[in-house]
Every structure is written in structure tokens, then in C-alpha cells.
Amino acid sequence: MELYQLRSFVAVAKQGHLTRAADGLHISQPALSAQIKALEEELGLDLFERRPSGMLLTAAGKRLVTEAERLLSAAHAFRSEARAIKGEVGGVARVGTVSDPEFIRVGEFLSAAVERYPRVEIQLQHEVSGAAFEKVRDGALDASFYYGELSHSSVAGLPLREITYRIVAPAAWERRIADAGWKDIAGEPWILTPPISTHYQLANALFQKHAVGPSKVVEADDEVVVSSLVVSGVGMALMREDLAIEKAAAGEICLWRDVRLTTTLQFLYSREREQDPVIRAMREILTDVWDCRPRKPRGRSGPRRSSTAASRGLPDAPAVLDTAIRE
């Protein structure tokens, strides 16, 4: 079994199509097909179902593709360490991003990376916070920015800054919600991100604290869209305090009460790769960009895992949510 065969296997699994995968790998379609066939023969397993519409992973293929990604990641770390021994830090790093680029300082991060480590190629991939965590845990991403507290055996994090959220509503609703209580607020339409996101978990923790739940939910896939929908008059939502104050001052939204929810912006990476030269390089850059030093997470001791978190292998729910709700 060769690494190039595993790389081809993962590429076809991601693309679901031989021709597109071959283009991405810069090899011919017949050569790629031969590599996949040779790997299947060596393993004694069918990894794909060949269909007119493309290549579909079999049950065996689905189980093995994650292991293939981990092996490729380990090989990448091995090569990076060899370069570091020679005095060179180099390689490709797949990094997940969340929120808007300015807020997480992606530009400063990449600028410093190019200057200090020209042999490191950083590939950015925008993610929902919960999905970013899962991909770092499973090896599909080398690292990622992330919202939330963290307490997990295989994923470590570098805390960068605290983030505060406020409850906001369309500007035209200011009188409508001025004297509203929690039950009234829950009866309004709410705009929430997908359940896997930390943004959603923050809102859910807030509702649970006050024994209410939103009666109508509009789902949006990222916070920029959420903000736009609030401004457009669709419903209420949580919004980062810096944006909420700016938009309230511009008359685009209104704030409901002085309720604040806090969480943490972190940079996640696999604990197993903590000493990987590329991971170390990125942590060093971010420590300088954010003027921070690693500190212990604020997770509670002995948190109880929710059934959803446990079944999906997510961090303990109280640690992820570890929010301070101040009224």
C-alpha cells in the first residue's frame, strides 16, 4: 500500500467522481482508476460503488476513508518534522475559519505566516464552529478557529479572546419588545444557526435557563446571514456585541435588555500533533498576533455529558457552552 494510493482514495471519496479527482491530483483518469483498483485488490474490499453519476463510497469505504485521512496527516507531520530538523518548517496546513475574517484576524495571521514561514502553505476553509471541531478531531482539518470552551481528550486549543453576545431584534420592534418578558421573547421568531454550531448552543442554553423555547425558528448557516436577517426584520437573534452596538447606533437593530453571553475564540489542533512543526509555527504566530499565552480552559470539573454530545464525540456540552449569562 502506497501513500499515493491513499491520497487518491481520499480525493475520489471527496469528489465522488473520478474525472474531477484526477484533475485535482493532476493525473489521468485511467491512472487514477488503476490506483483505486489496485488498492481495492490489496485490501480485498470494494471501496466504491461505480455508478453512471459517479463514485459512491461503500460501507467499507466510509469506515476506511477517515483512517486514510489520518495516515496522510501523519505522513505530512513526518515530512514537516524532517524539514524542521534541517532547519526548515514547511508543509500544507488546512485551517478552518469561523465568523468574519477581520474579527478573527485572518489577514494578520496569513501575513505573518508568509513572512516567517514561506514554506508553509495555509489553505483556509470556512466552517460552522461545531463542524470545525469535528474536522480537527477527525483529521480532516489540521487546525481551526473555533467559538466555545473546550474539554476534550484528543483536541487542544489556544484561547485567543473572549466574545460577548447580545440579544437583538429588528429596529422596528423596539416598542414591541420594550416591556417583553422571557416568555414573550420566546414567542417571537428567532434566527438561529444550525444545531451543531456554538452560536446555537449559546441560544439554547439561554432558553433552557429561563425554561422557555423559541416558538418559531428560521435557520441560517452563518452569523453574517443571521445579522442580515435581523436587520431585514425577520426575527430576533444573538449577535456579537461589537456588531450589535454598531448596528444599534446606526438604527438598524435594537437591543433587548442588558443580557450578555460570553464564550471564547480559540485555535484548535490535535493533541497528538501539538509538537508538529507546522502546528507549533501557527500557534507561535497567533500568540504574537493576539498577544496571548496559552491558559487553562474555564471548563467545569467533572461535567456531565449530554446524550447528543456523547453520541457524536463532541466536547462536553457544559464545557463548550461555559457561558456567563449576566442580566
Describe this structure in words.
There is one protein chain. The longest helix is centred in the first third of the chain and has 27 residues. This protein has 14 helices and eleven strands. It is α/β, with parallel strands linked by helices and 327 residues long. The strands form three sheets. Strands 3, 4, 5, 6, 9, 10 and 11 form a seven-stranded mixed sheet that branches. A two-stranded antiparallel sheet has the order 1-2. The chain has three domains: 66 residues, Winged helix-like DNA-binding domain superfamily/Winged helix DNA-binding domain (Arc Repressor Mutant, subunit A); 138 residues, Periplasmic binding protein-like II (D-Maltodextrin-Binding Protein, domain 2, 3-Layer(aba) Sandwich); 102 residues, D-Maltodextrin-Binding Protein, domain 2 (3-Layer(aba) Sandwich), CATH 3.40.190.
Tell me what the CATH architecture of the largest domain is.
Answer: 3-Layer(aba) Sandwich
CATH third-tier fold name of the largest domain: D-Maltodextrin-Binding Protein, domain 2
Unreliable segments of 5+ consecutive residues = 294-314, 316-327
Number of helices: 14
Multimeric organization: single chain
CATH superfamily of the largest domain, by name, is Periplasmic binding protein-like II
Q: What is the percent of helical residues?
A: 40-55%
How many domains, in number, for the residues? 3
Indicate the overall shape.
globular
Overall radius of gyration: 23 Å
Estimate the strand proportion: 15-25%
Q: Output the CATH class name of the largest domain.
A: Alpha Beta
Structural classification: alpha/beta
Number of strands: 11
H/E order of the elements? HHHEEHEHEHEEHHEHEHEHEHHHE
Give the end-to-end Cα distance, rounded to a whole number of Å.
60 Å
Q: Could you tell me the mean pLDDT?
A: 85
Summarize the biggest pleated sheet.
7 strands, mixed
